[in-house]
């Protein structure tokens, strides 16, 4: 992984309850864009690795005969089951496991998706394993927010004060980013393209799906965003969580007299690698 950091099961402990409210949505058109690019027609199987609360698994499941969501966090899987039931999606199997546990007897898949999760994994090993779970022509798909800064002009409310929030978290938890029981002084690794090329995948094909929306966020929404993150997971604050939340709410209330924020939702970027046919 990174700098001696070792994964542990507390990485997102308690975050699942805040995830759907706190995280900005992917662009509404990402399912249609991926289905068009890959010719998805309701057949085959989908594997979503590091599926969290089903953010990508549930909307994509209708493009396949069966979907499997894999995540090591029991709270995330509980939320994923609730989301699938709420949306009336019944062709998903949820499996508690790490990516490093694959193939875990799960079989062969037409598409394997990683939605902003691959950076937490032992990438070389996982890429090699996933290659063996895909047929010729099968696809490895990375789903992520586009990262460039977005315009703040014309927004109806102030932008959330993310830098000030990050400084508050550092004051409470220390200057080095927390991740479960450990620390990530250098962040998570990149190099995804090198890893996948080494595993025998061709690509990537890049699709950018426009969001085009302005999202209004309440103080509660921004608090949920903080606690949906690995470096702000509720357990990190221990018995002083309520004190931290009081400081966070005071900061946010001072940043917006009306208690509302606004920001432009980022576009969604799909990067697709394929296995050669034959």
CATH architecture: 3-Layer(aba) Sandwich
- The computed structural class is alpha/beta
Q: Calculate the mean pLDDT score and round it.
A: 96
CATH class assignment? Alpha Beta
| Strands side by side in the biggest sheet | 3-2-1-4-5-11-8
Characterise this structure:
The protein is an alpha/beta fold and 278 residues long. The protein has a single domain (16-274), classed as Vaccinia Virus protein VP39 (Rossmann fold), CATH 3.40.50. It contains 9 helices and 11 strands. Strands 3-2-1-4-5-11-8 form a 7-stranded mixed β-sheet, sandwiched between helices. Strand 4 (111-115), helix 5 (123-131) and strand 5 (139-145) form a beta-alpha-beta unit. The chain is globular. The model has no long low-confidence stretch (mean pLDDT 96).
Topology, pairings included?
Blueprint: H1 16-22, H2 30-38, E1 45-49, H3 57-60, E2 66-71, H4 74-86, E3 92-96, E4 111-115, H5 123-131, E5 139-145, H6 162-173, E6 178-179, E7 182-183, H7 192-198, E8 202-209, E9 214-218, H8 219-228, H9 241-255, E10 260-264, E11 268-274
Parallel strand pairs: 1-2, 1-4, 2-3, 4-5
Antiparallel strand pairs: 5-11, 6-7, 8-11, 9-10
Helix pairs in contact: 1-8, 5-7, 6-9, 8-9
Question: What's the short version?
Answer:
With 278 residues, this protein is of the alpha/beta class. It has helices at 16-22, 30-38, 57-60, 74-86, 123-131, 162-173, 192-198, 219-228, 241-255; strands at 45-49, 66-71, 92-96, 111-115, 139-145, 178-179, 182-183, 202-209, 214-218, 260-264, 268-274.
Question: What are the defining features of this structure?
Answer:
alpha/beta, Rossmann fold, seven-stranded mixed sheet, 9 helices, 278 residues, globular
